[in-house]
Each structure stands twice: as structure tokens, then as C-alpha cells.
Design brief:
By secondary structure, this protein is an all-alpha fold. 80% of the residues lie in helices and 0% in strands. The chain has 4 helices and no strands. It has helices at 6-18, 20-28, 32-57, 65-88. Helix 1 crosses helix 2 (20-28), helix 1 crosses helix 3 and helix 3 crosses helix 4 (65-88).
Length: 90
């Protein structure tokens, strides 16, 4: 579980806090790390697609660094919210 990224850790925390029975079953069968890694990959891929779609619809200006930061942050926040509700917290 040490190599998990952001989404894998979010899934692990969700299971611990909200789905303790599923957490215990995965832990006892030795499949917890594999499950969290699978969720991590799916969530990351979905996040990248959402970010790309948002930035495609909202192109970054070349000369306004603050606006570029704002758009990038906004894209990540939207992606995280969708990924969390559709993949992490189910």
C-alpha cells in the first residue's frame, strides 16, 4: 500500500471509514492492495480525460500565467469531484 497515489489512498480511507466489512474482506484475502491499485488506475485515467476535456473547452491563454494556474486548478478540482463521486466513493 506504500506505492498508492492520491486516488488509491482516498479509496483506502473510504473503505476504512465507510465500508469496514469490505475493507476487512479485502485485507483478509490479501486483495486490498490490488483493489486500491486498480481503483487508482481507473480514477487517474478518468481524471486525465476530464481535465483534458475541460481544458479543450477552456483553452489556456499564452500570456496570462495567473489565468493558466486558475484554469489548471479548476480543471483538477472538477476532475477530483467527479472521480470521487463516481469511482472512489462507491
Amino acid at each position: 500500500l506504500d506505492g498508492l497515489g492520491k486516488y488509491g489512498r482516498l479509496r483506502l480511507n473510504f473503505l476504512c471509514e465507510q465500508k469496514p466489512q469490505m475493507y476487512r474482506e479485502l485485507l483478509l484475502t490479501g486483495k486490498l492492495a490490488e483493489h486500491c491499485a486498480t481503483v487508482e488506475r481507473a480514477a487517474f485515467e478518468m481524471s486525465e480525460k476530464i481535465r483534458a476535456g475541460f481544458l479543450n473547452k477552456n483553452p489556456m491563454p499564452e500570456d496570462d500565467t495567473m489565468e493558466r494556474i486558475h484554469l489548471s486548478t479548476q480543471a483538477q478540482m472538477i476532475a477530483d469531484e467527479i472521480v470521487t463521486s463516481q469511482i472512489i466513493c462507491i
